[in-house]
Amino acid sequence: MATDQKIRVRFAPSPTGFLHIGGLRTALYNYLFARRWGGTFILRIEDTDRTRTVPGGAEGIIRTLRRAGLDYDEGPDVEGQERGKYGPYVQSKRLTIYREHIYKLVTAGAAYQCFCSPEELETVRQIQIAAKQPTIYNKKCREMSSPDRAALIKDGRPHVIRLAIPEEGSTTFSDIIRKEITFENRLIDDSVLLKSDGYPTYHLASVVDDHLMNITQVIRGEEWIPSTPKHVILYRAFGWTPPEFAHLPLLLNPDRSKLSKRQMDVAVENYLDRGYLPEALINFTALLGWNPQADREVYELDELARSFNLPDVNSSGAVVNLEKLGWLNGQHLRRLSKEEYARRAVPYLEAASLITPCPGGWVNEQSGTILSSQDLQNALSLERERVRNLGDLPEALSFIFGAVPEYDGDLLIWKDAEPARIMKGLGELAEFLELMRDWTESALEARVKAWIDEQGYDTGQILWPMRAALTGRKASPGPFEVAAVLGKERTLARLRKAVEKLL
C-alpha cells in the first residue's frame, strides 16, 4: 500500500434512497484512511442511473454524513454549491466529459457500438441460462464491419457503447485487503459503458472521475470485485495507471445472510433519530470488519483515525449486532458531561410533550413545575446509567415527567411483610418527611435511615415501598434520588396515594 503520495479517496454513493449502514461504513473507512495519512476525503454523487435516482436523495446523504460527523474536504453541499477544484462532483453534470472519453475509446478500438435490442439480449440470456453458460454478452455487434456500423448510426439506430474486453489472457489486480485477484478475460462481460440515452454507466463514469480527480485508493464494497477487472482494462485502454483497490467485506444479518432491510432497519438516519449518538454509531460501524487490536472497544472518531490501518480490515463478512450498538451507545452517553447530556436529551423530551421551553428553563407539562437547567440535569441523571439511547428517555423518565404512576398495591409489599405494617410505615414516613426542610438526596438518605432505626422498622419495609410508591416500578433508581428530583410536594402526594392503595 502506497502512502508516500498525497492520499485522495472518495465516497461515491448513488442517490437512490437513504444512506444505509453499509454506505456509512464505506464513507467512514475512506474518511479514516484520509485522516490517518493526512489526505483528502471527497464526496462524489453518482446519479447517472436516472431510473433509480430519488429526488432529494443526494441532499439526504449529505445531511446524514454531517449528522454522523463525517466532514468531507471536497464535494457538493445541500445548497447546490461545491468546494474543491476537481468538480463538478455530481456525475450528471459531467456528461460532456464522459462523451469525450468514450469517443477516444471507440476511436482506439477499445469500445464499440452495440445495436442489439433488449429483446435480443434477453433471448440470448435465456439460452445461456438453459445451457448453464455464463450470462455475458455474445459479442454479436463486436464482429460487425465498420461500414455496417456506420450505416446503422447514420440511420439513427439506438445503440449503446460496450467495452471491448481482450479475448485472451487474464486480468490481475492487487487488493489491499485481499491481495492478488485474477480473472480470466473470456469470462468478463463486454459491459455497457454508455447507454442509449447518452448517460454513462458506473464503469465508465467512476474510472474517468477517479482518474481526473487524482483518486489514489478506491475503497468500496466487495460487491464491486467482479467489476474491477473491467475497470483495470479501462485504465489500460486510456493509458492511465489504476489506483489501488480495497474491497470491504459484506455486512451480515445475525443469521449470516447478507444484510437486508427485510430483517433489520439499515437506514443510518433512523438510528440517529431514535437517539443513538453519532459517536456511538461511528464507533460501532468502524468495528464492522476492523479492530484497532487494543483491549478496548469504545473509541472517539479521532482515536479511530489515529489507529485505522486498511490492510488490517477483515476479508470475511461482519455481523451487524444491534445489541452491541446499544451497549456502545450507553457507553458514549455516560461519557458526556451533564450539560451536554441534557442538551442532547431535551429534543426527545420536548417531542414527547413532557417539557416545554419557558423563560428560565422548561415547564413540566404534567405537574406545571418549572425546571431549571440544574433541575433537568438532576432528573436526567436518574436513568443515565441504565438508558441505552436518548429515544428511550421519555418512557424511562415517565415517572418523573409524566402522570403519577399507576400500579397494583401488591407492588408495595416487601417480601412477606404484612400490608398493614407497610401501610403504617408509609404513613408515618410521610408525616416525618413533611417536617424536613433540607430536601436534598444526601439529607433525605441520612435522616430517613436514622428514622428507620429509631422506629424499629426493617430497612426493606420502608425503602422498598417508598421507591415503588414514587416510581410505580419494580426496577428503578433509588428512593432518595427520586424523591430529591420529585420535590417535597410530589413525593408526599405519591406516598399518601400509596397508603390509600393499602386501605
From TrEMBL:
<keyword id="KW-0648">Protein biosynthesis</keyword>
<dbReference type="InterPro" id="IPR004527">
    <property type="entry name" value="Glu-tRNA-ligase_bac/mito"/>
</dbReference>
<keyword id="KW-0479">Metal-binding</keyword>
<feature type="domain" description="Aminoacyl-tRNA synthetase class I anticodon-binding">
    <location>
        <begin position="343"/>
        <end position="498"/>
    </location>
</feature>
<comment type="function">
    <text>Catalyzes the attachment of glutamate to tRNA(Glu) in a two-step reaction: glutamate is first activated by ATP to form Glu-AMP and then transferred to the acceptor end of tRNA(Glu).</text>
</comment>
<keyword id="KW-0067">ATP-binding</keyword>
<dbReference type="GO" id="GO:0004818">
    <property type="term" value="F:glutamate-tRNA ligase activity"/>
</dbReference>
<feature type="domain" description="Glutamyl/glutaminyl-tRNA synthetase class Ib catalytic">
    <location>
        <begin position="6"/>
        <end position="327"/>
    </location>
</feature>
<keyword id="KW-0436">Ligase</keyword>
<dbReference type="GO" id="GO:0000049">
    <property type="term" value="F:tRNA binding"/>
</dbReference>
<dbReference type="InterPro" id="IPR001412">
    <property type="entry name" value="aa-tRNA-synth_I_CS"/>
</dbReference>
<dbReference type="GO" id="GO:0005524">
    <property type="term" value="F:ATP binding"/>
</dbReference>
<keyword id="KW-0030">Aminoacyl-tRNA synthetase</keyword>
<dbReference type="InterPro" id="IPR014729">
    <property type="entry name" value="Rossmann-like_a/b/a_fold"/>
</dbReference>
<dbReference type="InterPro" id="IPR000924">
    <property type="entry name" value="Glu/Gln-tRNA-synth"/>
</dbReference>
<dbReference type="InterPro" id="IPR020058">
    <property type="entry name" value="Glu/Gln-tRNA-synth_Ib_cat-dom"/>
</dbReference>
<keyword id="KW-0862">Zinc</keyword>
<protein>
    <recommendedName>
        <fullName>Glutamate--tRNA ligase</fullName>
        <ecNumber>6.1.1.17</ecNumber>
    </recommendedName>
</protein>
<feature type="binding site">
    <location>
        <position position="143"/>
    </location>
    <ligand>
        <name>Zn(2+)</name>
    </ligand>
</feature>
<dbReference type="Pfam" id="PF19269">
    <property type="entry name" value="Anticodon_2"/>
</dbReference>
<keyword id="KW-0963">Cytoplasm</keyword>
<feature type="binding site">
    <location>
        <position position="261"/>
    </location>
    <ligand>
        <name>ATP</name>
    </ligand>
</feature>
<dbReference type="InterPro" id="IPR033910">
    <property type="entry name" value="GluRS_core"/>
</dbReference>
<dbReference type="GO" id="GO:0005737">
    <property type="term" value="C:cytoplasm"/>
</dbReference>
<feature type="short sequence motif" description="'KMSKS' region">
    <location>
        <begin position="258"/>
        <end position="262"/>
    </location>
</feature>
<dbReference type="InterPro" id="IPR020751">
    <property type="entry name" value="aa-tRNA-synth_I_codon-bd_sub2"/>
</dbReference>
<dbReference type="InterPro" id="IPR049940">
    <property type="entry name" value="GluQ/Sye"/>
</dbReference>
<dbReference type="GO" id="GO:0006424">
    <property type="term" value="P:glutamyl-tRNA aminoacylation"/>
</dbReference>
<comment type="subunit">
    <text>Monomer.</text>
</comment>
<feature type="binding site">
    <location>
        <position position="114"/>
    </location>
    <ligand>
        <name>Zn(2+)</name>
    </ligand>
</feature>
<feature type="binding site">
    <location>
        <position position="141"/>
    </location>
    <ligand>
        <name>Zn(2+)</name>
    </ligand>
</feature>
<dbReference type="Pfam" id="PF00749">
    <property type="entry name" value="tRNA-synt_1c"/>
</dbReference>
<dbReference type="InterPro" id="IPR008925">
    <property type="entry name" value="aa_tRNA-synth_I_cd-bd_sf"/>
</dbReference>
<comment type="similarity">
    <text>Belongs to the class-I aminoacyl-tRNA synthetase family. Glutamate--tRNA ligase type 1 subfamily.</text>
</comment>
<keyword id="KW-0547">Nucleotide-binding</keyword>
<dbReference type="InterPro" id="IPR045462">
    <property type="entry name" value="aa-tRNA-synth_I_cd-bd"/>
</dbReference>
<dbReference type="GO" id="GO:0008270">
    <property type="term" value="F:zinc ion binding"/>
</dbReference>
<feature type="binding site">
    <location>
        <position position="116"/>
    </location>
    <ligand>
        <name>Zn(2+)</name>
    </ligand>
</feature>
<feature type="short sequence motif" description="'HIGH' region">
    <location>
        <begin position="13"/>
        <end position="23"/>
    </location>
</feature>
